[in-house]
């Protein structure tokens, strides 16, 4: 049976966790009331604080340490004001799996940008720590994740490959997702200055966005390489106090054979809307990897882990 996934295409404010939580819950409620049978809900990128790239560097450091929180597994107590408490409450209340983030995760002395997967039981059951860090994130002391983004939702027999921002530029990362037998790939992207993915561009006087020609080219290539549908989840972030200036990104669905599905794109004019995707786990399978590809995938995973280890061991 196909699994129905609901994706929120929303606008948030910088460093406004409380108001963002309220807006997102209203959107979640609207989605669940309007569409029956939704099993998985995907939040917009950086849903509670906005991306670090939007802040001045000194402010970004304060945002990190004021918002970093531990990500527990199993039944444990968390602060009611935490992102974890909010996500687990929503998943339990609405009876859906939720994929949300990145959030700022603290683990001992290290800080990560992490995507979380939460079950209808109100538990965090899986997570992905961002591997492809930007130069700004490196300077801010964010640590590299060690593993490719693969979230297993066993009850639905659904495996979701996930990526964030710079991950899109690394073919080895997607080969690892392919080797993990994912059924669909969901990515999270907010425009930023990127060595690989281009500069932030003016869509008009009030809206900053990414180089969509370049992003679309990457998306089509990754979808064809893996043989899997990709949903790039976008949205918008208010970067001025009066809300008149936005950094925005479309939500873009891609199919390996058809390319970009133009009719399903959600853009700035569609903020506050949803995209509904159905995934047949019996037929949506990655392209079969040849033996050399499997070897390369294993080596890529090892290289990711070693790169993360080296980066995390460096002083400062």
Describe the protein in words.
The structure is a single chain. The chain is of the alpha/beta class. It has one domain: Nitrilase/N-carbamoyl-D-aminoacid amidohydrolase, CATH 3.60.110.10. It has seven helices and 17 strands. The strands form three sheets. Strands 6-5-4-3-1-17 form a six-stranded mixed β-sheet. The radius of gyration is 18 Å and the shape is globular.
SSE order and pairing:
Blueprint: E1 3-9, E2 11-13, H1 17-34, E3 38-45, H2 57-67, H3 83-94, E4 97-107, E5 110-118, E6 124-129, H4 135-139, E7 150-153, E8 158-164, H5 171-179, E9 184-188, E10 201-204, E11 207-209, H6 212-226, E12 230-233, E13 235-238, E14 246-249, E15 252-255, E16 259-260, E17 273-279, H7 291-313
Parallel strand pairs: 1-3, 2-13, 3-4, 8-9, 9-12, 11-14
Antiparallel strand pairs: 1-17, 4-5, 5-6, 7-8, 10-11, 12-15, 13-14, 15-16
Helix pairs in contact: 1-3, 5-7
